[in-house]
Design a protein that fits this description.
There is one protein chain. With 356 residues, the protein is α/β, with parallel strands linked by helices. It has 2 domains: 161 residues, Rossmann fold (3-Layer(aba) Sandwich), CATH 3.40.50.2000; 177 residues, Glycogen Phosphorylase B (Rossmann fold, 3-Layer(aba) Sandwich), CATH 3.40.50. The protein has 17 helices and 13 strands. The strands form 2 sheets. A 7-stranded parallel β-sheet has the order 3-2-1-4-5-6-7, sandwiched between helices. A 6-stranded parallel β-sheet has the order 10-9-8-11-12-13. Helix 8 links the parallel strand 8 and strand 9. The radius of gyration is 20 Å and the shape is globular.
Length: 356
């Protein structure tokens, strides 16, 4: 059984690699990772060598389509919509495996162009997608990105090696790119948290896209503090950061739900930098961007309505990590499904059984 993983963006890899590693156990190295040329080719080449991946470089979707139709693999994985599924389906079957379980409406809109199967996290989202797209195939497998943490194969970061103090509690700040809380943090906020290690793992776009240059300047400044480690482009996965952290700080990011699924305390920043086109009379655009359950999901975390409230909330949660445990576990089941470390295995088993 030959698989292809379409890696349009580097941050798709953490979702793909557990499935790939499960494939290696059963079938050997029968997968190809397709990468798209961009500004971080050198970083990707290093990851290719580290993971010992079979790979193919393309410039755009058209080149990817041509490679896929020529190769005729059994299954091709996509993390988002792909413009040429009709051509692909002439020779291969397709999979959609989303890269996050966040609160954005785009989670559901990705299925407007149906793949052969979409693997989904939990019964709630599976049923909702099935109602929206009754003629398509959705299979609840769980959230494979967390398999390495649950199985204990991810050891996390070695704090001393990255210049931090392993005796301190560790905070993970993992903001999304938009709408983001980055611009609302104090310029020298790490100094206020000198008693803690701070891991900063921003979205890939914050580190790579020109339009988020102001965010990068702040992030780079924060990295100069002794108690801060700022993720590099090559730190493509949030998984080791989540493994090492005692508490997560985030905003409208899927990281909130991934971390809560591990039954660790989460602080949700309600203070966001919104573009003018999302404020005032245009606030409906922000609501459209978020899932209809956005308000309900908010119960999974303690909220800081302003930056000035953040430290008090963090101290409370670190002192009482059991607070909201019942709610976290309930939403973990709703948003991530079964968390037994076998989501990747269920994916491979399904592909084998339906590889006809």
């Amino acid at each position: 059984m030959q698989l292809i993983f379409d890696v349009l963006h580097l941050y798709y890899l953490p979702q793909y690699l557990p499935v790939y590693n499960e494939l290696l156990k059963e079938h050997g190295n029968e997968a190809i990772f397709v990468f798209y040329h961009g500004r971080h080719d050198e970083v990707i080449n290093k990851l290719i060598q580290q993971q010992n991946l079979n790979y193919k470089w393309v410039d755009n979707e058209q080149q990817a389509r041509d490679f896929y139709t020529k190769t005729a693999a059994d299954w091709i994985f996509f993390a988002n919509a792909f413009s040429y599924l009709k051509e692909i389906h002439q020779v291969s079957k397709s999979v959609q495996l989303g890269h996050g379980i966040g609160p954005k409406a785009s989670y559901y809109l990705k299925s407007n162009a149906p793949t052969t199967v979409r693997f989904v996290e939990g019964q709630y989202r599976t049923q909702r997608l099935q109602q929206m797209y009754p003629n398509d195939t959705f299979v609840d497998v769980g959230f494979c990105k967390l398999d390495p943490i649950i199985n204990g194969t991810c050891q996390g970061l070695q704090l001393e090696k990255i210049g931090l103090n392993s005796k301190k509690k560790t905070l993970l700040y993992a903001p999304t790119f938009y709408p983001s809380s980055i611009e609302c943090f104090a310029k020298d906020w790490p100094a206020e948290y000198s008693d803690y290690n701070i891991l900063i793992k921003p979205h890939y776009f914050s580190l790579s896209k020109d339009k988020y240059e102001k965010q990068r300047k702040l992030l780079t400044h924060w990295a100069t503090f002794d108690n801060v480690y700022l993720a590099k482009i090559e730190d493509h996965s949030l998984v080791p950061f989540m493994t090492s952290a005692d508490l997560l700080i985030s905003d409208a990011s899927s990281a909130l739900f991934e971390f809560a699924a591990l039954n660790k305390p989460v602080v949700w920043c309600d203070f966001l930098k919104l573009r003018w086109g999302y404020r005032g009379v245009f606030s409906y655009r922000f609501k459209q961007r978020m899932d209809q359950d956005f308000g309900e999901y908010a119960e999974i975390a303690v909220h800081a309505k302003r930056y000035t409230e953040l430290k008090t909330v963090i101290i409370e949660q670190l002192d009482n990590p059991q607070l909201l445990q019942t709610t976290r576990l309930a939403y973990a089941n709703k948003l991530a499904g079964i968390l037994d470390g076998n989501a990747s295995k269920r994916i491979i088993d399904y592909l084998q059984k339906n590889n006809v």
